[in-house]
Amino acid sequence: MKTKKTAISLTKEMIDEFEVVFGKQYTFPPTLPMIFYRYMEVAWEPSSPPILRDQHCACTKELVVGETYLCQVELDNLKQMHGCFFYTQSLFVYDKQGEVCCRCVSKLVTHSPLRKKT
Amino acid sequence: MCVQISDTFTVTEENIKQYAHLSGDDNSIHFEKSSVIGQDFQAPIAHGMLVMGLVTTVASRFTQKGMIITTYNMRFLKPIYPGETIEIIGEGKCEAEVVSLRIVGTKIRGEMELRWPK
Questions:
Q1: What mean pLDDT is predicted for residues B72-80?
Q2: Residues A20, A12: contact at Cβ < 8 Å?
Q3: Distance (Å, rounded) from C-alpha B50 to C-alpha B94?
Q4: pTM, two decimal places
Q5: What pLDDT score does B91 carry?
Q6: A52 vs B47: CB contact, 8 Å cut-off?
Q7: Torsion angles phi and psi, residue A62, rounded to 5
Q8: What's the average model confidence in pLDDT over A6-33?
Q9: Mean pLDDT in residue range A34-49
Q10: Which of B12, B15, B9, B4 is nearest to B87 (CA)?
């Protein structure tokens, strides 16, 4: 299952807010795109709080302030084991050439199945 | 091994609030004690992505020179609570174009690769 692609511009304000939490950034880390979730509509949600188990972030191109990116989240690897529900959410960030410049893969677990957001 | 870096940081409730605002992740498990009942947690926990961002300071001697973190993985072994101090050690090898760090910390394990921008 995938979300629609959402256009998100990386602004100086976003970086300023990021630096309030993490300090001065000399180069942008590959964890930066995770703040794009704030601006995205994800159609599914867990009915109980999810826990992040594992995170992988990779950027093949540096993000640039002032640029607009297309972002999409993909849900897969849903599994139920030992009374828990495991799933993977991948955030893809595309540049204006349509190439993936960042990919952030989150492996999560929750105690209840995912449901469609109303 | 060409480099060994150690660092400590403390996750505060203020960090957690700031990261929730930055990312839009207001999952109740980071704020409400009632949400951690049944999860085997002692108290609300810090965001994994907050911890991951704070740990990037281990690479600051390289990012200050302009290197970019191109890949960054982290496994969250145990929950981290507000007020908790995390000790991390980054060990790695430095080649002409690439620095590879293995990160070992209280409750986390990770890897990071840094390269010079193209």
A1: 96
A2: no
A3: 27
A4: 0.93
A5: 93
A6: yes
A7: -70, 140
A8: 96
A9: 90
A10: B9
C-alpha atoms less than 13 angstroms from C-alpha of A39 in its C-beta half-sphere? 19
- Least confident segment among A35-44, B35-44, B106-115: B35-44
Return d(Cα A58, Cα B115) in angstroms, integer: 12
Does the pLDDT value for residue B1 go beyond 70? no
Query: CA-to-CA distance for A93 and B50, rounded, in angstroms?
Result: 20
Which residue among B29, B49, B68 places its CB closest to the CB of A62?
Answer: B68
Name the residue in chain A with its Cα closest to that of B17: A21
B:48-107 residues touching chain A, CB 8 A cutoff: 48-50, 52-54, 56-57, 60, 63-64, 66-76
Contact (Cβ atoms closer than 8 angstroms) between residue B25 and residue B47: yes
pLDDT of residue A92: 98
